[in-house]
Write a structure and sequence with these properties.
alpha+beta, Helicase, Ruva Protein, domain 3, Tetrahydropterin Synthase, Chain A, 3-stranded antiparallel beta sheet, 11 helices, 8 strands, 47% helix
Length: 286
C-alpha cells in the first residue's frame, strides 16, 4: 500500500473540500492515486446525497446577483437543513456564485447546465459536492432572473439575516432616466417595500381572477348581517382596501405613511413603470 503523505492529504483536501480524516481514508482506499480518490469521493458523495435528498431543507439563505449596468439580475433561495450550514462561508459563497450563474445563463433547467465557473461540471454536480462537504441536503429551492428589455434597471434588497429578499425591475423612458439618482433610489426602496409589505402582485389587474373572486365571496359572506341591497357595495369597498394592501403600487409606502407607492414612483420621474418583482423567504412555500 502506498504511503499517504501529509502533502497528498492536503492537496486532496484543497481539491475536494472534504474533512482531513475523510481525505486520508479515501486516499488509502485509492492507494494514493489522487484521481481515483476523487472518483471515489464523487461516487460516495452522490450516494450520500441520494440518502439525504428526502430530508427537509428548511434552512438556507436568499442571495442575489446584479450586473454592473443593473440591467440583469438573479435572485435565488439556496436551501440546507440547518442555520449552522446556512451561515457557513462556503455555503454563502456557493449561493452568491450560483446567483451569478443563473443571471448569466439562459432560462431553463439550471441543474443540468454546465456551471459557469467550471464547464466540466453541471450545477447539479456542484450542489452534490457541496452536499458531500456539508453533510446536509443542499437544494436550489427557487430562482428568478430579470433582464431589462429596453431602458430601465434591476435592483434588490436582502434582509440582514439573508432569510428574505426581493428583486425589482423598473422600466424607464430612456437610459438617462434609468441612471438618475432618483430612479436608483426608487428601485432600492421598492425592493425594501416588497420584503416589508409582502405584495402579491405589482398592480391590481395582475391579480388572478380566481383569487379576486374568492376574496369577494369572503367579503360578501362577512356582510351577511347587513341589508342585501348594500352587501355588494360593502364587499366592493373591502375589496378595494384589500387591493391596497396586496398590489404593490397601491400599497402605503413603508418609508413614508403619507404616500402610496405609486406616488413615490411618479415623483421619481415621468414614464417610469414598475415591471415586476420577485420575493423569496427561506422555508416559505410559494
Amino acid at each position: 500500500m502506498a504511503d499517504i503523505t501529509a502533502q497528498a492529504v492536503n492537496e486532496f483536501r484543497k481539491r475536494t473540500g472534504l474533512g482531513l480524516m475523510e481525505c486520508k481514508a479515501l486516499l488509502k482506499e485509492a492507494d494514493g492515486d489522487l484521481k481515483k480518490a476523487e472518483t471515489l469521493a464523487k461516487e460516495r458523495g452522490l450516494k450520500n446525497a441520494e440518502k439525504r435528498a428526502g430530508r427537509a431543507a428548511t434552512a438556507g439563505r436568499v442571495d442575489v446577483f446584479i450586473s454592473p449596468d443593473a440591467r440583469l439580475g438573479a435572485l435565488l433561495e439556496l436551501g440546507c437543513e440547518t442555520d449552522f450550514v446556512a451561515r457557513n462561508d462556503e455555503f454563502r459563497q456557493a449561493a452568491k456564485e450560483l446567483a451569478e450563474h443563473i443571471a448569466q445563463s439562459p432560462d431553463g433547467d439550471t441543474l443540468d447546465q454546465a456551471y459557469f465557473k467550471d464547464a466540466s461540471k453541471t450545477v447539479r454536480e456542484i450542489l452534490i459536492e457541496l452536499n458531500a462537504r456539508t453533510g446536509e441536503n443542499v437544494t436550489l429551492v427557487r430562482k428568478a432572473r430579470f433582464q431589462v428589455p429596453g431602458s430601465g434597471r434591476v435592483d434588490y434588497y436582502i434582509h440582514h439575516d439573508a432569510k428574505s429578499g426581493a428583486m425589482v425591475e423598473v422600466h424607464t423612458p430612456d437610459d438617462a432616466t434609468a441612471q438618475s439618482d432618483a430612479v436608483k433610489a426608487l428601485v432600492k426602496d421598492l425592493a425594501l417595500q416588497v420584503v416589508a409589505a409582502k405584495p402579491l402582485c405589482t398592480r391590481r389587474d395582475e391579480m388572478p381572477a380566481a383569487t379576486v373572486e374568492e376574496q369577494k365571496r369572503i367579503f360578501i359572506a362577512q356582510a351577511a348581517d347587513k341589508p342585501e341591497n348594500i352587501r355588494e357595495k360593502i364587499a366592493t369597498g373591502k375589496l378595494d382596501a384589500w387591493f391596497g394592501e396586496n398590489a404593490l403600487i397601491d400599497q402605503i409606502f413603508v418609508k413614508d405613511g403619507a404616500k402610496k407607492v405609486k406616488d413615490v414612483v411618479a415623483s421619481a420621474g415621468k414614464g417610469i413603470e414598475v415591471a415586476r418583482f420577485a420575493r423569496f423567504v427561506v422555508g416559505e412555500t410559494e
